[in-house]
Every structure is written in structure tokens, then in C-alpha cells.
Design a protein that fits this description.
This protein is 35% helix and 22% strand. It has 658 residues and is an alpha+beta fold. The radius of gyration is 28 Å and the shape is globular.
């Protein structure tokens, strides 16, 4: 490859890697595997060294993601740089150059900077793009193991990783009935959880915090003395009550065995980790080495060299879900990976299938991402002969490939597909719908197969099958009674839960609440609403209105709904619509709130009193609600241009909600 070809390849790689990084860090989605990203990144870095050319937007000189607009932003006092990395154990050993080091887990979550003043948590800010982060103080206060008060009376600034354990990740995913809506990995779930507007949502996710770096500890005007030792800093943080990342002292003659010790434990380690970090224990020496444009020289990251094993692709199974999404799963000849036998790996969607150029019988290499999740790394054959099913594997109905965001996915078009019915029942009994405990998808499938339930109303008559249920695997007299009691309790519910539980496309719980509130909790009005009427509701739109009306116009759906309502005792909210003092007024809410758990909560109160909440400022906006009234955000600028009042939350409450 001559110089011009190398430069052309650089120009090709930069946008590919930036797009993948933006999806991963800012949108919590994945366009490629970590293995593929690292491979392309290393190729780009090598080409830049060879040519001496580095584009301004290259990921080798950019750090992290750009802070999103919905949280307040703050510039870090000192830039937060990425770490240089290696996959060579010998290179890691040689990096020490005779100095003592500290080896620790490299946790795979979201980096947070904490500031304590006079022993109290003052501020929490995400890493963001390394220069500017997002203020998430209220959310940080819900982290499971984070101390709100510490004994150190001065100013303490530290960095650490917010993470969600694998066990909590699996529990959260188990509560999501729709396969296509489950989170891909703990890192994505944690990133979305920490950067919520509502700290209530963060609290439900069991986020943990592990400290890995002390930035400063100042008492009066004096920096605290840690005997020039990172280990001493770790001990100090531990003494203050922080969970610190697991670490151990190492030297050149002990580091290889220390790496092996970490490696032996990675399979059962419950906290997501994508490698190790090696830091010089001698603080002054490490700092004296300075930094490159992107990396500090006092630390280096070690990434596990993925164990690649070659095998043969035997099949690709296509699994339909409640919404009709059909998920591809690769089945290959069993192989040993990281100490376990593996024979299956998710291929995610049609785009990934095509990118891998799969075909039955192809030779593929597989690995475990972060030594945990099986993935296909490369297709060595690349036959590209795999046919995308034209019919659903469950019902035989027609399928169609649809563009969903950045990727293409396969869908079953048959609304009566049994797979959709099972998934539909799973949604129906879920916590936010009818909240019936004891009915897993596997149990529902058995009840459907036995003919005990054919529609939602049948669930409320399972008492007649008590004896048969008690004989089912996993059941007995007590568990059966517990299930029947849960079903009986579910009879008392609300109309938004009922509407959501029907599984109408695009009608989540928030939209169900919006519709019920708009039609004053009148089921007849809800069932008879026209598409035009629904489209006029703020936040609904033509697409949602169309799918909703289509569902309600189906005579069979209406009959099933009527039979279901005959089994329920639906509570109507007290006082709904009595006070409509905000009727005809439109508000815009932005930024974080102090008196409400989320912007949705404030939105609900405004709408309950007749007002509307829009997403953008116009000349018809009554006022913009923003606690940062002096910010230079786009909404503030627009409000000033149009002469729209900008009120803090307190000012809004005093003026409109007294």
C-alpha cells in the first residue's frame, strides 16, 4: 500500500470509527463489536504513525462522547484523558521499567467525577468528552454504595466508575418481556441509567460506584500527603467509605502471575470489566512523564487478548417476538471458550448477518466479548449464501425487512402469529401492565399449549384448572395458590395499565396515560376515537394514531377487550379534570428539576390542569421552565428571541401552580 492509499484508508476509517463511537458512548447502541472496533482503531493508529498524518476528527485524538443536551453541562478542571493500551503481557511488564506499580480491574461502565466539600457530596459529573461532562448529582445520590458524607473535612475530588453488575443486569432484562427491547450489555444499561433526568429511574437500576483515582484532597490550603504513593491514596479512599476498584501492588517479577490471577477470576467476577489498568505507584515519577495529546503516561490499559476459536456455522435460528421482530441466533459446532462450552451467539439483526456474509457451513471464528458474551468475530469463508427467511418460522406468515435506526431488521407481518400471542401474554402480565407474579414466558407457553388460556380474560379463570396447574413442573399447592392470589389482586387496576397491557404497537405506558387522561378515562371514547382526533393530541402523531385505531376497529379485539373489562375493577383517578386553570397554555420544560422526580412528572401535572407541554419554543409558548435561566442553551436563546418568559421551577410554581 503506497502513501496515497494509506491516506485514503485513513479518510475511510475515521468516519467509520467516529460513527461507531458516537453510537456506543452517546446513544448506548452498538454498530460493531469491541473486537472489530479495536482492530480498525489499531489499523488507523498504525497508518497515522506511518504517514505522519492525523485528521482533526480522528478518534486517536478525540476522547469519549459529546455531552447530550438534556442534562446541565460542566467543564472539568483538568481534562480526563483515555489510556494507552496493550494486549501484550510482556509489554505491560516492560512498561514498569523497574518501578513498582498498582494493577487493578479496568471496569466497563461510566466514569464519574465526584466532588466532596466539608464532608458532603457536592457534585457528580460524567466524563463526557473529557473536557465537558454532564451534571448528574441527584442520580449519583442513588448509587448503592456511594457515601453521602465522609470524615474528610476539606475538599476531595475523585474519579471512579459507575457500573451495574451482571446479576442485576440479568434481573432487569428478565423483567422486559420483549426480546428486542432488552439491553445488550451492562455498560449500555448503566450509561442510560446514570444519565437519566429522573433519579427515581436510576435508583431502580442498582448502580454501584468504584473509585479508581484520587484527583485532590485539600484541607485549608494544604494538599494532603500520601507519601507519594497511589496505594496510600487507595487506602485513604477506602478509609473514607468508598468502594475502591480491586487492585494489587506489582513489580516486574510479579506482574505476570498477578495478571493470571485476575484472568482466573474474570469468568465469575460480577462487575463488568474489559481489562486491567497498570499505574506507577510513585505519583511524582508518573506525573513527571507528562502526557501525549490523548494519553497520560502514568498509566496504561491492558486489554484481554480475545481467545479466538474456529468452528463451523451449522444454522441460524430466527426467533420471533411480540412486536414481530425476528432475531437471528447463530448455531455452530460447540467449542471451548474461556473455560466453558459455547455453541450459540446472537447475530443481532439483518445488517450484521449481511456484514458477516454468513452461509451455512462457513468457517467462522468466535470469541467472548470481555470474556463473557459469545460473539462471531469473523467469517473466514464469507459465502454470503444465507437466505433471509421470507416466512415466519413460527406461523409461516410473510416477513419483511425494515429499517430501524442504523440497522435493518426482519419482522413477521402476521398479527395472529402464535409467537406474538405468547409475547403478548408476557407483556400483559408484566409489572407495568397487569402485574401478575408467577407467570413466566415458559409457564404462559405451557398454559397456552394446554388450552387453559386463549385470550386475556381467560387468565382470570385459572382457578378451574387448579389441580392441573399444581401438577405442572415447577408448581405445587403453595405456588399455585400464590399465582391465583396474584391474579385476584390484579383485578383491581387502572385504565392506563389496561390499555398498555393490550400490546398495541407504539402504545407504551406513558402514551396509555396520555390517552386516558385526554378522554377523561372514558373507555367508550377511547375505543371510538378517530385517527384525526388522536393525531391532534400533543405527543401522539399520525403513526401512533393509525396503529391504535386499527387495533380498536378490529371487532375481535373489541370483543376480547369487553370480556377482559368484565373481569376487572377499574379505578378512576379522583379529581381528574376538575381544575383546568392551565387550559389553552403551552409550556416547554428543559434541564433538571428540584421539586419533581422527572420532567414527565411535571408534564403530567400541567396536562392534568388543562395545559400542554411541547418540545420546542415557539411564539405561542406561555413560558420556558428552566432552572438555569442564564444558560446559553438553544431553548433559552430561542425564548429570548421570541420574547418568551424564562422561569425557574420555583418561579413557575409560584405563578401557575399555587
Amino acid at each position: 500500500m503506497d502513501r496515497s492509499e494509506k491516506i485514503a484508508r485513513i479518510r475511510e476509517l475515521v468516519p467509520i470509527l467516529n460513527k461507531a463511537a458516537e453510537a456506543y458512548y452517546a446513544k448506548d447502541t452498538e454498530l460493531m463489536s469491541n473486537l472489530e472496533y479495536d482492530k480498525l482503531y489499531d489499523e488507523l493508529a498504525a497508518l497515522e504513525r506511518e504517514t505522519g498524518m492525523v485528521l482533526a476528527g480522528s478518534p486517536t485524538v478525540k476522547v469519549g462522547y459529546e455531552a447530550v443536551d438534556f442534562l446541565p453541562k460542566e467543564r472539568h478542571a483538568t481534562p480526563m484523558l483515555s489510556l494507552g493500551k496493550t494486549k501484550s503481557r510482556e509489554e505491560l511488564r516492560d512498561w514498569l521499567q523497574g518501578h513498582k506499580g498498582v494493577l487493578s480491574w479496568k471496569l466497563d461502565g461510566l466514569t464519574i467525577v465526584l466532588t466532596y466539600q466539608d464532608g458532603r457530596l457536592e457534585k457528580a459529573v460524567t466524563r463526557g468528552n473529557g473536557e465537558v461532562g454532564e451534571v448528574i448529582t441527584a442520580n449519583a445520590k442513588t448509587f448503592l454504595n456511594l457515601p453521602m458524607n465522609i470524615s474528610f473535612p476539606g475538599r476531595l475530588v475523585l474519579r471512579g466508575e459507575a457500573v451495574i453488575s451482571y446479576s442485576d443486569f440479568e434481573k432487569i432484562n428478565a423483567q422486559i418481556p420483549e426480546e428486542g427491547e432488552k439491553y445488550k450489555n451492562p455498560r449500555n444499561l448503566c450509561s442510560g441509567s446514570v444519565r437519566q433526568l429522573s433519579s427515581e429511574i436510576t435508583a431502580r437500576r442498582n448502580v454501584q460506584f468504584y473509585a479508581f483515582h484520587l484527583v485532590e484532597a485539600v484541607l485549608g490550603e494544604e494538599q494532603q500527603d500520601f507519601q507519594n504513593s497511589r496505594l496510600a491514596q487507595f487506602r485513604f479512599l477506602s478509609e473514607q467509605g468508598f468502594a475502591v476498584v480491586e487492585h494489587m501492588p506489582v513489580e516486574e517479577d510479579t506482574i505476570l502471575s498477578a495478571i493470571e490471577d485476575f484472568e482466573r477470576r474474570i469468568e465469575k467476577y460480577d462487575i463488568p470489566s474489559d481489562g486491567l489498568v497498570l499505574t506507577y505507584d510513585d505519583i511524582a515519577y508518573g506525573e513527571s512523564l507528562g502526557r501525549t495529546a490523548k494519553f497520560p503516561r502514568h498509566s496504561i490499559a491492558f486489554k484481554w487478548a480475545d481467545e479466538l476459536v474456529e468452528t463451523t456455522l451449522l444454522d441460524v435460528e430466527w426467533s420471533p417476538s411480540r412486536t414481530g421482530l425476528i432475531n437471528p441466533v447463530a448455531v455452530f459446532e460447540p467449542v471451548e471458550l474461556e473455560g466453558t462450552t459455547v455453541s450459540r451467539a446472537s447475530v443481532h439483526n439483518v445488517s450484521v448477518v449481511r456484514a458477516l456474509r454468513l452461509g451455512i457451513g462457513d468457517r467462522v471464528t468466535v470469541y467472548k466479548a470481555n470474556m463473557i458474551i459469545p460473539q462471531i468475530a469473523e467469517n473466514l469463508t464469507g459465502s454470503d449464501t444465507l437466505e433471509i427467511p421470507k416466512t415466519c418460522p413460527v406461523c409461516g406468515g410473510e416477513t419483511k425487512i425494515r429499517q430501524t435506526g442504523e440497522a435493518q431488521a426482519l419482522y413477521c407481518l402476521n398479527e395472529k402469529c402464535p409467537a406474538k400471542e405468547i409475547k403478548g401474554f408476557t407483556l400483559f402480565v408484566s409489572r407495568d401492565a397487569m402485574n401478575i407474579d408467577g407467570l413466566s414466558e415458559a409457564t404462559l407457553e405451557k398454559l397456552i399449549d394446554k388450552g387453559f388460556i386463549k385470550e386475556y380474560a381467560d387468565l382470570f379463570h385459572l382457578e378451574r384448572y387448579r389441580d392441573a396447574i399444581e401438577e405442572m413442573e415447577g408448581f405445587g399447592e403453595k405456588s399455585c395458590q400464590k399465582l391465583l392470589d396474584s391474579i385476584e389482586n390484579a383485578r383491581n387496576t387502572t385504565l392506563p395499565r389496561v390499555i398498555y397491557s393490550l400490546g398495541i404497537a407504539n402504545i407504551g405506558l406513558a402514551n396509555a396515560k396520555l390517552l386516558c387522561r385526554y378522554f377523561d378515562y372514558d373507555l367508550d371514547k377511547l375505543c371510538g376515537a378517530s385517527a384525526e382526533e388522536l393525531s391532534a393530541i400533543e405527543g401522539i402523531g399520525e403513526v401512533i394514531a393509525g396503529t391504535y385505531v386499527e387495533y380498536m376497529k378490529d371487532p375481535e379485539n373489541r370483543e376480547k377487550l369487553n370480556r377482559l373489562m368484565g373481569e376487572l375493577h377499574v379505578e378512576k383517578p379522583q379529581g381528574g379534570g376538575e381544575k383546568q386553570d392551565l387550559a389553552g397554555k403551552t409550556f416547554v420544560v428543559t434541564g433538571s428539576l428540584n421539586h419533581y422526580a422527572s420532567r414527565n412528572e411535571l408534564k403530567e401535572e400541567i396536562e392534568a390542569r388543562g395545559g400542554k407541554v411541547a418540545g420546542s419554543v415557539t411564539g405561542k409558548t406561555e413560558c420556558l421552565i428552566n432552572n438555569d435561566v442564564t444558560s446559553s442553551s438553544s431553548k433559552n436563546k430561542k425564548a429570548k428571541e421570541l420574547g418568551v418568559a424564562i422561569l425557574s421551577e420555583d418561579e413557575f410554581l409560584e405563578k401557575y401552580l399555587q
